[in-house]
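Module 6 notes. Inverse folding takes a fixed backbone as the condition and produces residue identities as the prediction. Think of it as a translation problem where the source language is geometry and the target language is the twenty amino acids. Below is one complete input and output pair. Work through it position by position during the lab.
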């Protein structure tokens, strides 16, 4: 019975909370700009509005176009199922699940790129090409940070890793470096400033937004909801490193991911989007930071 309740609470957090993060980001940006801003729950109403509309499909598209939003959403849900949100052990925890977590994120991005290319539009093809470049530059930082966690805890499961971190006393500089690299990955994976601007309409700078221009109605709702889910799960991983012991406790998870959302809003209020060459340098720097974190952890264990 307790397991069922924990699974239900896990599903409630994973499926119900993500749109609120988008609302927090918008509210923080409005507060910094001195505006009242939209209601905190506006993302929920936007999703309902899109679900009530019809979808329009071009005759040049194939099944890839309409299946891409479904797979993108499903991959984000699957990635969240290997995270310990409401209990110390995730519903689908197993040794090596951290690799599957990363590949679930990559699968959703890959299908979205395929959907953009399926339209036959050179404009959306440009966005897909940029998205592929960002992904290729962000993945080394993500994997090196995950390897740092494995080396630091000697565990191969995200649930075991975060449970071990909760029992470890003292500050670990390598983990803080890994957390800084993961923070950059969170911004890149979720198309946030300074890597991308989700609110832009300038054709020459759009990345994620240009890939979803032809989607409408329920398909666009699935994309927006899947993006919010990805923001939630990547923020949860960051919270698990910054605040050891937070994952597995629902109240701490909520506070942690809302804090990350507020931090993203603050970053977007104080920074401008980087030029594309600078985005490359930003992500390469994140990968280098993850590499330094891994080297530092190996050095400390060798010295110990």
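Target side of the pair, the amino acids:
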């Amino acid at each position: 019975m307790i397991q069922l309740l924990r699974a239900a609470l896990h599903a409630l957090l994973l499926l119900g909370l993500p749109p609120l993060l988008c609302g927090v980001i918008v509210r923080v940006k409005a507060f910094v700009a001195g505006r009242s801003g939209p209601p905190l729950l506006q993302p929920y109403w936007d999703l309902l509005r899109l679900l009530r509309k019809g979808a329009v499909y071009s005759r040049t598209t194939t099944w890839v176009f309409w299946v891409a939003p479904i797979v993108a959403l499903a991959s984000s849900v699957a990635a969240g199922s290997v995270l310990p949100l409401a209990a110390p052990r995730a519903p689908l925890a197993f040794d090596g699940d951290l690799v599957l977590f990363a590949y679930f994120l990559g699968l959703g991005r890959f299908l979205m790129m395929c959907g953009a290319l399926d339209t036959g539009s050179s404009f959306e093809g440009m966005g897909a090409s940029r998205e592929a470049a960002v992904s290729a530059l962000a993945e080394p930082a993500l994997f090196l940070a995950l390897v740092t966690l494995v080396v630091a805890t000697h565990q191969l499961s995200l649930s075991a890793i975060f449970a071990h971190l909760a029992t470890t006393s003292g500050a670990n500089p390598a983990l803080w470096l890994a957390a800084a690299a993961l923070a950059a990955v969170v911004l890149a994976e979720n198309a946030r400033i300074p890597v991308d601007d989700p609110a832009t309409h300038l054709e020459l700078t759009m990345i994620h937004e240009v890939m979803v221009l032809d989607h409408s109605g329920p398909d666009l709702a699935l994309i927006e909801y899947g993006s919010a889910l990805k923001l939630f799960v990547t923020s949860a991983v960051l919270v698990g490193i910054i605040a050891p012991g937070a994952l597995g406790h629902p109240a701490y998870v909520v506070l942690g991911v809302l804090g990350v959302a507020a931090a993203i809003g603050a970053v977007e209020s104080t920074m401008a989007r980087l030029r594309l060459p600078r985005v490359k340098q930003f992500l390469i720097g994140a990968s280098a930071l993850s590499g330094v974190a891994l080297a530092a952890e190996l050095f400390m264990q060798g010295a110990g």
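Reference fact for the lab report: Residues 2-303 form one domain.
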